[in-house]
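Worked example 3 (structure in, sequence out).
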């Protein structure tokens, strides 16, 4: 056995590796040393004095210092133990060490405080003789030698670069990257050309990594972090990276671009071109034609003659003829001994359908002001033979009033605000004034524009603030929300509006929505708000037992108004009661909705024909183009339509219903 062959092989291998970046794997120092000693075949590491011959303190220090050092060559990990030793016994040891080091993932780059590791030779005096001992020894490249106080920060920085680049590769979709590059190419992004290099370079890196296993991808990222520009390695943490994140997470293109422009563009910036590129349009068109869906895109309001009795839970006598009157011949036209029950009963929608509807001759529902966003229209394809466009097996869809009326909730959502918190307070106004939304919490903390984007101790946050610094829009909104009631403290929350800067005397006043677990209460202040004037909107008392109670407020909007040809705050006949089309024919896909289609209810605008969440999975890759197509393919106004009130099974709500039949009763139906 010739140890010099072993030490020289390790030194030569280390020298070759030093030409590139050096890293270390996550092997415990003690495991390195114990594997080295146990790697010797039986009888090849005899006792020498009190320890085995190779149990050497100099070699132990060397192995603990650099035994786990690796380089990356052609995407593969190379260890200092991979060189050919030239001695079969030592080769066994080298192979065991290489296997151990390679079994662990790379932990970080390799840095050391000394310019050498190990000791080349040591001399020992034995009586009148001097014995020379050989040990592992290497000289370190200058690039890996650093002062001790600098090593920690440098390693932290390198690790952070690795982690953010790996996360970017894993989480940012190629579709989002290609979309951003298309938008940059057609000059649809503010100063987009400044990001072109970073996005193009990241695309190449992501493409290289896309076919790798998780372990190989990690190695690949480590091979890039020391040479890649920071704008690419840290792309996820930049403004263009936030746009890529939003698009990868499924945020609609218009909203994602709006959030990007809010971060980087000046207030008077106007986008030069459309957000959808020709390439995106051509790809979507090809898929639609391949699936035979072109005719399904044309939409109109549904009529009574379009639906079948199989998908109707209740039909008023006047609506039965259009549905096929023979089916209802077995239903008695008169109920004996009808009795009136004045007491209002609370029933769930399931109990209402199973126990009350089968015995009903007529149903009327109270159309309240708070139901404006529940107005819904049933939409049908112009071509009755069109291939189903949706995830369900029929061509029908629905459109809620929020699409047409530009509700406060939709305006907040478009501005990038949170609309799904347990408590959402939304402010809207219609001129260039700089109104500010404030919430004073029970502990005295005040949420307002100076701490926008910062969550309070009780979980509240202002995430949308508009018209600050200058009038930029006539549809401004602000939004204060609490994501979860579990963080809220019991007590009184005071909500008020302050006119920070009065600029106009037209389109004065404001509206506020308070949305608690889907139950929306609306308030309106119709007078002008003077400069610096504060208007208290509501005092909300929160308790775990009762939730939110409004103990003091502006008047809620309860005055009757005519919407969709019907006066609010009054009862109206229900022609048809049905489930949403995604639950017809005994099948169910997604959220269930309950539709009370009212006689005379008429959407006098253009209803959206479909939404992305309705569409078949084959169209997901083109969702940005389809979103714009859907906004354009609207149903034209029609007097002959099926419209009314709709309620989702996933949102708390209620409606008063008068039911005539065996009993005449008024019930509160809860959802």
């Amino acid at each position: 056995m010739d140890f010099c062959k072993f030490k020289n092989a390790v030194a030569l291998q280390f020298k070759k590796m030093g030409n590139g970046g050096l890293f270390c794997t996550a092997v415990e120092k003690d495991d390195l040393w114990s594997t080295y000693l146990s790697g010797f075949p039986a009888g090849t590491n005899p006792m020498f004095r009190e320890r085995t011959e190779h149990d050497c303190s100099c070699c132990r220090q060397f192995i603990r210092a650099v035994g786990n050092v690796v380089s990356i060559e052609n995407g593969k990990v190379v260890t200092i133990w991979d060189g050919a030793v030239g001695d079969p016994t030592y080769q066994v040891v080298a192979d065991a060490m290489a296997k151990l080091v390679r079994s662990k993932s790379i932990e970080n780059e390799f840095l050391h405080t000394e310019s050498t590791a190990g000791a080349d030779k040591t001399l020992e005096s034995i009586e009148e003789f001097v014995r020379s001992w050989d040990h592992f020894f290497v000289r370190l490249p200058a690039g890996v030698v650093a002062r001790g106080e600098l090593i920690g920060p440098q390693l932290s920085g390198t690790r952070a670069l690795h982690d953010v680049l790996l996360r970017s590769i894993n989480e940012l979709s190629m579709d989002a990257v290609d979309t951003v590059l298309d938008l940059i190419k057609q000059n649809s992004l503010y100063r987009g050309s400044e990001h072109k290099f970073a996005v193009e370079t990241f695309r190449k890196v992501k493409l290289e990594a896309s076919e790798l296993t998780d372990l190989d991808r990690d190695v690949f990222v480590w091979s890039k972090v020391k040479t890649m520009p920071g704008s690419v390695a840290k792309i996820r943490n930049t403004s263009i990276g936030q746009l890529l994140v939003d698009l990868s997470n499924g945020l609609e293109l218009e909203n994602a671009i709006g959030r990007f422009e809010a971060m980087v563009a000046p207030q008077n910036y106007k986008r030069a071109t459309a957000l959808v590129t020709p390439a995106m349009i051509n790809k979507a068109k090809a898929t639609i034609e391949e699936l035979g869906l072109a005719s399904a895109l044309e939409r109109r309001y549904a009529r009574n003659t379009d639906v079948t009795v199989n998908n109707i839970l209740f039909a008023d006598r006047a609506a039965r003829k259009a549905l096929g009157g023979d089916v209802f011949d077995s239903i008695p036209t008169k109920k004996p001994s009808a009795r009136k029950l004045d007491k209002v009963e609370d029933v769930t929608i399931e109990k209402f359908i199973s126990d009350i509807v089968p015995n009903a001759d007529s149903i009327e529902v109270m159309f309240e002001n708070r139901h404006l966003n529940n107005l819904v229209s049933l939409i049908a394809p112009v071509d009755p033979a069109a291939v189903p466009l949706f995830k369900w097996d029929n061509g029908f869809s629905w459109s809620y009033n929020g699409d047409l009326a530009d509700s406060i909730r939709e305006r907040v959502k478009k501005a990038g605000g949170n609309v799904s918190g347990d408590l959402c307070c939304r402010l809207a106004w219609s001129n260039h004034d700089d109104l500010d939304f404030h919430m004073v919490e029970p502990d005295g903390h005040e949420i307002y524009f100076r701490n926008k984007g910062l969550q309070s101790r009780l979980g509240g946050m202002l995430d949308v603030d508009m018209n600050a610094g200058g009038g930029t829009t006539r549809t401004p909104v602000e939004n204060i929300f609490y994501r979860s009631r579990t963080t809220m403290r019991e007590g009184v929350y005071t909500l008020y509006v302050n006119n920070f800067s009065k600029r106009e005397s037209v389109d004065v006043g404001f509206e506020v929505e308070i949305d608690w677990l889907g139950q929306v209460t609306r308030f309106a202040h119709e007078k002008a708000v003077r400069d610096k004037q504060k208007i208290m909107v509501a005092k909300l008392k929160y308790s775990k037992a009762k939730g939110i109670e409004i103990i003091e407020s502006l008047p809620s909007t309860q005055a009757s108004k005519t919407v969709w040809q019907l006066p609010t705050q009054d009862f109206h006949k229900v022609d048809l009661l049905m489930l949403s089309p995604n639950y017809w024919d005994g099948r169910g896909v997604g959220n269930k909705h309950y539709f009370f289609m009212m006689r005379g209810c008429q959407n006098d605008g253009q209803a959206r024909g479909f939404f992305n969440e309705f569409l078949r999975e084959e169209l997901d890759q083109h969702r940005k183009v389809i979103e714009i197509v859907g906004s354009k393919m609207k149903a034209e106004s029609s007097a002959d339509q099926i419209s009314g009130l709709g309620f989702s099974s996933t949102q708390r709500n209620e409606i008063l219903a008068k039911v005539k039949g065996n009993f005449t009763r008024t019930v509160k139906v809860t959802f």
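Notes: The chain is about 30% helix and 30% strand. Residues 248 and 436 are 32 Å apart (CA to CA).
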